[in-house]
Each structure stands twice: as structure tokens, then as C-alpha cells.
Write a structure and sequence with these properties.
155 residues
């Protein structure tokens, strides 16, 4: 999202890599993932609001005990709760940036076992919904704000 370090590698941020590629060379977009690979994308502001809500929820359940939580904590996933195919994310990004590049899909990252086998990733956000949280940002809105933060005109 906005403010994220652009110097990071492809493996750490698929979205920034796409923006950087399209900004530098809008005619071709090389995508490591397969077109049907699915992921759950969540905007950074939603992650922050989820963490704040979790902290407030934990503080209301039990007081802190010498810096440690005095109760058992369970895992809670934060995400959009929606699986999005790589091709749909790419199409949305290109539409936002008003470019129509030739798409070159790779065959996944050989070091990423989940991607080798195209394991879909989609967060189950039921626990977060149980404490009243849900994502506020739609994928397109988050992509637009991220593009704009990198100095690229978005529509």
C-alpha cells in the first residue's frame, strides 16, 4: 500500500512489482504467477484497523499481567475473505493505470511450494467478524490509492 518501500523484491510484493513494471515499460507485463493463481488481497488500512480492534478486544477481556497477556490467545486471520485470480488483479491494475500491455505469465516461483501447486489462498475472517471487524476497502480502491502513492495517475 501507500508508503511501502518500492525497493523490495517481487517475492515480497506482487502489487508493487506490477506497478513498477507498468510505470517503467507499459507495453509488457511479466507476471511470475499463473493466470488462475488465487490470493486474498487486503488493503493496509484494513490490516491496521483489524489490529487495533484485536488489541481493544483483548484489553476488554483481560487485564495485562506484568506485560504478558493473562489468557490464552488464538489465531485470527486478517484478509478480505475473497479469493482473487491473478489475471483479474492484473486486469484491474491495467485498467486503473490505463495501459494495455502484452501479458507474459510465468510458471510460478520454484521456491514457493504453495505457488508451485497453485494452492488458493483466501483468509477465513470469521474470528475477526466475530469481534465486529470487516474489511472496509474494496480491492479496486486500495489498488488506486497504491498506484497514486507511487506517482502514477489512476482512474
Amino acid at each position: 500500500g501507500p508508503g511501502q518501500n518500492e525497493a523490495v523484491t517481487y517475492t515480497s510484493t506482487f502489487i508493487l512489482s506490477m506497478i513498477r513494471q507498468l510505470r517503467e515499460k507499459p507495453d509488457v507485463l511479466r507476471i511470475r504467477d499463473l493466470p488462475g493463481t488465487t490470493r486474498d488481497w487486503v488493503y493496509i488500512d484494513d490490516v491496521v484497523s483489524a489490529l487495533k480492534m484485536l488489541m481493544a478486544s483483548l484489553q476488554s477481556i483481560s487485564p495485562l499481567n506484568e506485560g504478558l497477556l493473562a489468557y490464552e490467545v488464538e489465531c485470527a486471520n486478517v484478509g478480505s475473505g475473497r479469493a482473487v485470480q491473478a489475471i483479474d488483479l492484473v486486469s484491474m491494475r491495467c485498467d486503473i493505470m490505463q495501459v494495455n500491455p502484452k501479458l507474459e505469465f510465468g510458471d510460478g516461483d520454484p521456491d514457493d511450494v504453495g505457488r508451485q501447486h497453485d494452492v488458493p489462498y483466501c483468509a477465513s475472517i470469521n474470528r475477526m467478524a466475530g469481534i465486529g471487524w470487516s474489511p472496509r476497502w474494496q480491492l479496486r480502491e486500495g489498488l488506486q490509492k497504491t498506484v497514486e502513492s507511487m506517482g502514477v495517475k489512476a482512474v
